[in-house]
Amino acid sequence: MNKEEGKTCNTRTGENTGCSILVTGASGFIGSFIVQEGLNRGFQVWAGMRGTSSRGYLADKRIQFAQLDFSQKDRLKSQLHEYKEAMGGKGWDYVIHAAGATKCLHESDFFKTNTEGTINLVEALRAEDMLPSRFVFISSLSVFGAIREEPVRVATASNPWIYSPILLSDKPNPNTAYGKSKLEAERYLLSQPDLPLTILRPTGVYGPREKDYFLMAQSIVGHTDFSVGYSPQEITFVYVADVVQAVYKCMQSSDAIGKAYFLSDGEIYNSRCFSDLLQKHLGFSE
Prior knowledge:
globular, 7 helices, alpha/beta, seven-stranded parallel beta sheet, two-stranded antiparallel sheet, about 20% strand, single chain
């Protein structure tokens, strides 16, 4: 709990009088749910986003908006200074950095957004004396890449897993530009000793407003089964509301500073099982 000049920040009880939070990527799938939960908990919530981003999921009148350009450090510093003045000369108590690019035309764009954008944000916050009491970075399991590709057991009815689980102690080896850009951002953040950081690495996030898994469901409706392949696959998921709860749990825990966590529902699904579950819930199988 933090108290200063009548401010109370307590994410356990929801008593967050005067306590402010910036959520970057607020217009996106995960970010918009983080914003709503912050409002539910009594925070003064600022939605950080580009000026061209949709506010379709951000209709609550309690939301304050911060237009931020992560691509230009000097411009970002100027923007942050303006919002600092609007808040009485102080920065946000918490920053949740959920902004990022998952799809780009060029590989270099992943690094411009996910890596350089993150660096620019932290350096601009520091330059304006606005480093928060906690900085939560939404990363991804993809920073580890396909490091467990060799089966270690034969699948059975009671134990369908055939690969070893990825561990926090494993050496990351991303095999996509997205994963590499997120890993570079993580490494930069972890190298900043004055930054009270927590890193969250969700697996496949699903829920309302998500689009990619929705497209998979649509393919099933169109009688196209994406589970067919030559190699067995194992995938994990986490519901968006659980990701949001993890964010706020990290914000309340001093033990989470300097640590990274995987976020998953604790289950493993092979691609065939995933397809079968979709077909069942879409009414295509019993």
